[in-house]
Amino acid sequence: xxxxxxxxxLREKDNEKRKTYIREYMKNKRNDTAFRGRKNQKKRRKKxxxxxxxFHKNIERGPEYVCTCCHQLWFRSSVKxxxxxxYSHCPQNIVKLCLTGCKSVDNEEWICFTCDSNxxxxxLPSFAKANKMNFPDKPEVLN
Length: 143
Hints:
With 143 residues, this protein is mainly alpha-helical. The protein has four helices and four strands.
């Protein structure tokens, strides 16, 4: 009985210590956040403008890179140059199906990261042209 009472008192003391610690922690956190918020407001504004500028720079050239495998249009940040040497460890039948010789920007063959990652693991990309996943021809009225 004494042991149970002693254990109960220890638990209560631990709980009080824990509650006090949490209260102090939250109080300090609120104060720090308010201080940091005022102090770094100009820096944050500058960072946002930098991010916007970076975004505009990244999309400066539209999605004009054509993936040689899926023939979809991509931004430069989503493609890499298609190089046969990179896929020397991959099944060559899949590589031959995917690297079709379709060239776009700078007369280079580009491959999107999605198709590239599928080829790297030895799979035919689900949107590959070789998988009969191609876009319909452009209607004449859109010319």
